[in-house]
Write a structure and sequence with these properties.
Keywords: ATP-binding, DNA-binding, Nucleotide-binding, Transcription, Transcription regulation. This protein is α/β, with parallel strands linked by helices and 674 residues long. Among the domains are: 79 residues, 3-Layer(aba) Sandwich (Rossmann fold), CATH 3.40.50; 180 residues, P-loop containing nucleotide triphosphate hydrolases (Rossmann fold); 69 residues, Helicase, Ruva Protein, domain 3; 79 residues, Winged helix-like DNA-binding domain superfamily/Winged helix DNA-binding domain (Arc Repressor Mutant, subunit A, Orthogonal Bundle), CATH 1.10.10.10. The protein is built from 27 helices and 26 strands. The strands form 8 sheets. Strands 12-11-15-14-13 form a 5-stranded antiparallel sheet. A hairpin with a 5-residue loop joins strand 11 and strand 12. The structure holds adenosine-5'-triphosphate. The site of adenosine-5'-triphosphate (ATP) has 16 residues, from helix 13 and helix 21. The site of adenosine-5'-triphosphate has 16 residues, from helix 13 and helix 21.
Length: 674
């Protein structure tokens, strides 16, 4: 397997860059991360070593000599965080806080280039003895370094690796063809967001400057911007391989594409096919509006030959995963009553034929649930085909799902291609991330659902299909419908058997068993107890952690724990990954949260016994855990003793557990409720 190592100074940057590269490189490439802050003693012989700045090159120069290629990543500001900067007064003195002198200078330079050149910047990095006293500090993702006296802190987020460096990595790995479309889809999304944002910021940042950025020239696809009248305002370097530069400067869209070309028609059709001279082009048009006024049209143009190549690669990849589901309900580990109820519901749904819509946060087991439903259904021996609607560009999606007819495009396979709907015939199709389906595709999906038949791209014949549909999303589809991003009619067609997965922070009793299960999965030895790997502080932290990435995030954390533990040692809170600590609460905060209700642990237990007649010790521990109060059965036992001594509770023999006395009730009324 090919490897890419990322080396950064600090852990913050490392985590975000590793995450970003992994997203682009997928599972074929192992992306590893090292930070100077954490320390390492590897010598690197990877395919690529990505350094997050020049300073690091000086530090690790000798160790990366054996790598096939070293890339010093260019880093870009995250546009979504720029807005707060506009609230800073002109000529204000501003502290720019970063981890080294060089990275401060780099960030200042970048901000100035983006139009924030009216402030007086003063760099601040750890180890400085004197620094200017400023009311405002700006930091790219290092707020913990900001000196105490600063009144206003603006965190513009860790800078991302820019598209030129991403492209360099993809080219080096020979992956531009296969992953370039994902990178470009993300990038176009970015461009759209930025353009929208800049325009809503009243053009305070010069839009044309942004467009002129050389970055667009490095972009792997041909891009062209034009106004509503079809006048070309900008095109990138790739575009000059399709049309001569001179023509684009002199002519409008109509002259280039021919008299029949209609911008708004191309926009509504999304992947519009145009034949220009001897070329077949796929144009995908995006409209950028502000308050219903069109700011610009962005045309992404693909030569069909290149598209074919990507298409073939993708098909090869998809074919290699045989259409089977590996999971069943036994793989969903839980002790939580609502989860068990949800699984019961899913089992019932498995028996029918109707469409299922699974909604829930990322990493909560939507795919595992879909596979389990298929495996328990009458279709279990038939194909299970999964397709992720967010991962493919819209032009590829359509031919992936519906297939294409021979001769639909130049270079199309003789005899055409079967789409995934046809592959799933008599089985189940799992459409993941349905909330990200482009609107044009939504219309076509609706037609398939209504008619029970598909029509291949370039074909006229309706091919009947018998497929059970399971769709999933982590978006709020109802909200998407209200926002006009998801078709209402399709939503109702999908939402026949709705089911919701539950985030793990709402079923905290599942956290220890899941930690235990995945420790056993990753460790090479049998793990009997969490305490073999983690000390008490770390366990409490993990049990209280909000886990925004749910089970997937928990799995990653366990993998880290297994790797980072020294032989037979235990990991403490301080040694847990920093991103977890950033997302979660510190042990102090956990402690505070215990008392955030203002009640003592004893009062919490009393209240619980008051509310639930005949509750037992184990149940009390569980209920307290749900509220984020992490105490063990031993402690609960001693609290119950003390409550009994005060005459507030009675402890019954057998299974009847504890009950509250009249005196106890009076205390609750007066001290707890009142
Ligand atoms: N209850 C569970 N018990 C054990 N493992 C689980 C459970 N739920 C999820 N997982 C594991 O967590 C990982 C993520 O699950 P899955 O891919 O099904 O989530 P998802 O909701 O589809 O995520 P996304 O929306 O990000 O695609 C998988 O490896 C799965 O095996």
């Amino acid at each position: 397997m090919r490897t890419v190592s990322v080396i950064s100074l600090g852990e913050n940057t490392l985590h975000s860059v590793v995450e970003q590269l992994s997203r682009y490189l997928g599972e074929e490439v192992n992306v590893r991360g090292f930070s100077v802050e954490r320390g390492f003693d590897e010598t690197f012989d990877d395919d690529i070593v990505v350094l997050t700045g020049d300073t690091i090159y000086r530090l690790v120069y000798e160790r990366v000599q054996t790598a096939k290629k070293v890339i010093i990543a260019r880093r870009a500001l995250r546009y979504e965080f720029i807005e707060p900067l506009l609230s800073i007064k002109e000529n204000e003195h501003v502290l720019l806080v970063n981890d080294t002198e060089d990275s401060c200078a780099e960030a200042i330079d970048q901000l100035k280039r983006h139009g924030f050149d009216s402030f007086t910047y003063h760099p601040y990095y750890p180890g400085m003895s004197h620094y200017a006293s400023c009311p405002v500090a700006i930091t790219p993702g290092e707020p913990h370094l900001i000196p105490k006296r600063v009144q206003e802190v603006i965190d513009i987020g860790t800078r991302q690796v820019d598209i030129t460096s991403i492209t360099e990595v993809l080219v080096e790995l020979g992956m531009l063809e296969t992953s370039g479309s994902l990178a470009s889809a993300e990038y176009v999304k970015d461009i759209m967001n930025v353009t929208k944002q800049l325009s809503s910021l009243n053009q305070r940042l010069d839009y044309s400057n942004f467009l002129n950025m050389t970055i667009l020239d490095k972009f792997p696809k041909a891009l062209l911007f034009c106004d509503e009248a079809g006048r070309i305002t900008y095109f990138n370097e790739k575009m000059t391989h399709i049309f001569p530069e001179r023509e684009m400067k002199e002519f409008g869209i109509q002259d280039l594409f021919g008299g029949d070309f209609d911008l708004s028609e191309a926009y509504s059709e999304r992947d519009h096919i145009v034949h220009v001279r001897d070329k077949t082009l796929i144009t995908s048009v995006e409209k950028i509006e502000d308050h219903e006024q069109v700011i610009t049209y962005l045309l992404e143009i693909e030569n069909y030959d290149t598209f074919q190549q990507v298409d073939r690669e993708l098909r090869k990849k998809m074919k290699s995963s045989t259409y089977t589901a590996q999971y069943n309900f036994e793989h969903l580990h839980t002790r939580n009553a609502s989860m068990k109820e949800m699984i019961g519901l899913a089992r019932k749904m498995a028996r029918g034929q109707s469409t299922i819509l699974i909604q829930g946060e990322s990493g909560t087991g939507k795919e595992i649930l879909a596979q389990s439903i298929h495996n328990e259904s009458a279709r279990s021996k038939r194909p299970f085909v999964a397709v992720n609607l967010a991962a493919l560009s819209s032009s590829i999606l359509e031919s992936e799902l519906f297939g294409y007819e021979s001769g639909a495009f130049t270079g199309a396979h003789k005899g055409g291609k079967k789409g995934l709907f046809e592959e799933a015939h008599t089985g189940t199709i799992f459409m993941d991330e349905i909330g990200d389906a482009p609107l044009a595709l939504q219309v076509k999906l609706l037609r398939v659902l209504q008619e029970g038949a598909v029509r291949k791209v370039g074909g006229t014949e309706q091919i009947p299909i018998d497929v059970r549909i399971i769709a999933a999303t982590n978006k709020d589809l109802e909200q998407q419908v209200r926002d006009g991003a998801f078709r209402e009619d399709l939503y109702y067609r999908l939402n026949i058997l709705p089911i919701e997965t539950i985030p793990i922070r709402e079923r905290r009793e599942d956290i220890p068993p899941l930690l235990h299960y995945y420790l056993n999965h990753y460790a090479e030895e049998e793990v009997y107890d969490l305490s073999q790997y983690l000390d008490e502080g770390a366990i409490s932290f993990l049990e209280y952690h909000p886990w925004p990435g749910n089970v997937r995030e928990l799995m990653n954390a366990v993998e880290y724990i297994v790797n980072m533990r020294s032989v037979s040692g235990k990991l403490s809170y301080g040694e847990l990954p920093r991103y977890l600590k950033r997302e979660g609460a510190s042990p102090q905060a956990v402690g505070k949260a215990l008392h955030s209700s203002g009640l003592s642990e004893e009062e919490e237990v009393l209240l619980m016994i008051h509310r639930k007649f005949g509750i037992g010790r184990r149940k009390i521990v569980e209920e307290l855990r749900q509220k984020g109060i992490l105490i063990g059965e031993g402690k609960v036992k001693s609290i119950i003793h003390s409550l009994k001594d005060k005459g507030w509770v009675e402890v019954n023999k057998g299974v009847r557990g504890c009950t509250i006395t009249e005196e106890g009730r009076a205390y609750v009324k007066e001290a707890v409720n009142g």
